[in-house]
Amino acid sequence: MIHFILQKVRTLRWFIFLAVFFSTFIVFIGVTSISSLLYESLMAEQANYLTQQLMDLPIESRSKIELPSITTEVRLTYIGTFIFYSFAFLLIAFVFSHFAIRRINQSIEEFSQQINQIQTGQDLQNFNPTNLNFIFNELNHAFNNISELARQLGRVLNDKNLLEIKASLLSKLVIKNIRLDDWNKYISDIFTNMHKTLPFDFICVYLTEEGQRKLKIYWFEEANQASKLEAEQLLTKQFKPFSNTHSSIESLEITHLHLTNQSFNNFKPQPIKGFKSQPKFLVRHLEKEPQIGCVQGVFIHSVAMEDIALRLRIDSILVVLLNLLGSSRAISGYTQKLETAINLSEQENTMAAEVLYGHLLVKNTDQLAGINYQICSSSRFSGDIIQVKRSPSGSTFILVADATGHGLSATITVMPVISVFNAMVQKGYQLPFILSEMNKHLVRDLPDDRFVAAILVEIDPAHNEVSIWNGAMPAALKLNKQGEIIKEFHSKHMALGILDDAMFDSTPERLTLPKDGHLMVYSDGLIEQENSKQQQFGNQLLNQLLQQKITQDPIKSVIQSVLDFAELEQPDDDISLCQIDFAEIKNEIIPSNIGSFLCSSLHTPFEWQMKIYGTQIAKQSLPALCNEFMQAQGLSMPLKRWAFSVIHELLQKVINTNLLQLTLIKESPLGSTAEPMINLDYHQKKTQALNNLSNDYYLELKFKCILKDCDQTNNQDLTTAPCLIIEVSDNAKGSTSLMEEDSLAKLRTLADQVIVSQQGHHIQVRVG
Fold it and tell me: Which is the CATH superfamily of the domain at 365-584?
């Protein structure tokens, strides 16, 4: 019961009704009790008074009078009457409270409907419930206060909108992963977004660039010519206070831009009374000097600026907007300059790549049968190179090199290797000389943290020999026909560019030239390529792949398998792969009719000679030095190839048969406990013997061209014909095996005449 009453009391209607009811009930109880007691007391006094009067009468005239008790009847009548009037009063109170509460509820419902219609801050400012009647003054006063609160909240909400505009502008200042190519498009989007919160007629940006002042007017809607002229007049008046620091108004370059295609023809600038120079709807922020991006001022024209409070607050937004416009314009300019620089850099890189790969590598690399290779770089430039070059001696050199790092820096590191390798091979130097020279240049020219891992292979079909030097590269693999690995040539040397000449070892591994099978050479980028699970391709997968007998383009298939394994289109590290097919390697045959090239190539006589002693015989390459002289003389390629082959073959015969044979006898006397030299590897034996050669021994080479008279037509016309003569001599003692006819059989097939004299220590080869 108490809970039910409490619930009813919470409603205004029942609260009034219960208040009237309980008030009436309390009054009824009190008045009834007091009135009945007073009435009984009054009736008792009246009875006593009548009794006293009767007592004053004579006895004989007094009759026995009994007064009836009427208290109970009177009390019931009084209570009934009071109940009737109380009920009427309660009924009147209920009716009055019902209509009053009903009117109040109607006003509250209308108040709720007005609240539901509030959608924007402007609606909140326009909210006014003063026309509603809540009956009681206290309620009307309370709801009037609510109306005033709504208008205050509207002003606060307007501040919130301004803060949202600030936040939106500040968010534009955050550097994002976007391109800022078109500044006008960028700020047009900003102005369009601003219009959603702060509607405006136009926004004007004032620029000062290279002494030229510009006004860019961004209309939200398309304006007619009259509106544009009025806006220009309004804006130009704003510069009068700055006339002493700026040039004349006529120098302004004004541009009108439209953010939308809607028509706008009602622009009327309205000045505030007493301040004709300050328009009513225009707010500006103007700096005395150009800021970043050459932006100096910004103006905004909006009807909302009629609110004085908003005009004061909008200035801080214009400061942010000014900084945003200047920063974005500067970034746009920097972006264009950067793109220009990048494009220029790309052009330079393209040119450098063309020079490197189109000239240094492609044009200086011989395309020879049996040698296939491919480089798959991780960028435009590669730190891996593969060079194939044919020497004048007939040997083929294959260089596979991997420089430290990636890209252009690695390419620059490996470029000295390319130039030295090509020059040394072209001059006819042998493998140890080429390696020593490349290492010398890299030690001298590269920083300490730069080096080049390399494998250099020399294939010499004339002597049926293959030489392999591996410096810090993965093992070169010798394969049979079935693709099975039968020998691995692991690295036994340091990379190029680390050790000086005294510590550098250029001694290669040598093997007999196989009749079939392959030699596979590759860089570490192939086996170290990782997949998404951080697993390397490795030697095991490579070996399995090589045994699959790939028939078409095995080099491309291997590289594609590596890329498929890594699920990449471009490797993380440069990959180079070279396959040498021994069965296709062919010896270059020197023309047998070499004399036919003499008349067309030789027109003047010449003579070149060199004499070297002792250990210099091992340190100098006489064939290469003579080859440089032949190049300077402009001899044709067949003649140079013939002369180089003859000199190389002749010198090897003289050194091995004459000089080294005497040295071996001298250094290994009978009865010596030293290890016999014959038990050593042939090339190690030869190198050691040359290093122990006494300075009393010499080796002399002469190369000359003479012109001789010859009878061409029955002794009637005498002409001169060239003749090439190559002479090699030494000062070793005793008769040698070179006196035998078959010892110089190969040379006799190359020359017209071979003369051996001085017990085999002087040999002359003639052609022509």
Answer: PPM-type phosphatase domain (3.60.40.10)
